[in-house]
Structure formats: structure tokens, C-alpha cells
Design brief:
- With about 190 residues, the protein is of the alpha/beta class.
- The protein has a single domain (about 5-180), classed as Rossmann fold (3-Layer(aba) Sandwich).
- The chain is built from six helices and nine strands.
- It has helices at about 5-10, 35-40, 40-55, 70-80, 120-130, 175-180, and strands at about 15-20, 30-35, 65, 85-90, 95, 110-115, 135-145, 155-160, 165-170.
- The strands form two sheets. The protein has a six-stranded mixed β-sheet, sandwiched between helices.
- A hairpin with a 2-residue loop joins β4 and β5 (about 95).
- α3 packs across α4.
Length: about 190
Amino acid sequence: MTNDKIHKIFEKTGGVLKGHFKLTSGRHADTYMQCAKLFTDATCSEELCKALAAKLKDYKADCVISPAVGGILMGYELSSQLKLPNLFAERENGKFVLRRGFELKNGSKVIVCEDVVTTGGSVKEVIDLLNELKAEVIAVASIVDRSNGKVDFGVPFVPLMQVDIESYEPSECPICKGGKIPLYKPGSRA
């Protein structure tokens, strides 16, 4: 599946937003890839996760785990395509934990998935949790890599699409300096 086709699916579902956005990382950007919009269309989300699953089939994972909230829908669909159990980590007192009776056996081989990766902060926190639980992270997967190739998880990173959308530290943001477009935080973390 080409970047162009994936981008057309984003556009079809209304997942490419333009404006002034505060990313989960705290950085600012004029474009936001809203994967939540992709997952309102079951056919589109199935098609994308099927293509991503094809890239992951040789990893021989035991389960898929994602950070809440953004990765939950993707994790469910990706695990369905891979025919694997699906778990998600949630924040409790500011730290990712497994709740709801979710458990991993020591040595479980895990694919961590996230809808969009910019700095990889949430994924790295989930990897830390999995290391504490003695699971083995064998790959990280995402629909969109917007890190400009800068993120390193210490394991293979398998994105479906790479986009180069410039982001800025708040103090350097030209949109803020222009003062005409209000800042909006579209992600799941306040």
C-alpha cells in the first residue's frame, strides 16, 4: 500500500486536519493526522491494519498491546488481522499499567502499536512497562510515523506510512507568532 493511497484514505475519512495543533509531545504543528477519524470507517481501518499486519507477520508475536486511548482501536483491529490477543495499557497516577485483569507471561513476545508516532513518548513508556513485566517487545507498529525517521525504540519500528510534517517547540512556533489561528489540542492526553 503506497503513502499516496493511505493519504487518500485519511482524506476520505476526514483524518487530515489543518490549523494550529498542540501535539501530545507538546510541540506545535499546522497539520494533524487524526487516526480516530480513520477508525470511524470499519472498511478503511480494516484495509490499513491488514496492510500493516502483512508487514508484521514474520515477527511471531504472542499479543499486541497499545497505549490508551489513541492506540486502542488500532490495537484491536491489528490484533484481529494478526489473529492475536489484544491488550492495552492505561495511565494510573501518571504511569502506564495493565488493568482490567490483563496479564502477560514472562517472556511474552509483544508488538506495541500506536496510531501516530511523533516523538514516541507513549510507546517508550509502554515499552518500559513491558520490560518491568519481563515481556519481550519484538516490534513497534504504527499507521503514521511523523518522527521524520528520528525515533528509536531499540526494536524494529514498522510504520505503514511516513509523513514529514514539521513541528515546532512552542517558543519557536511561527503559527503562535502570527497570532491569528487559535491553538487546539486534538489528541487524547490533556
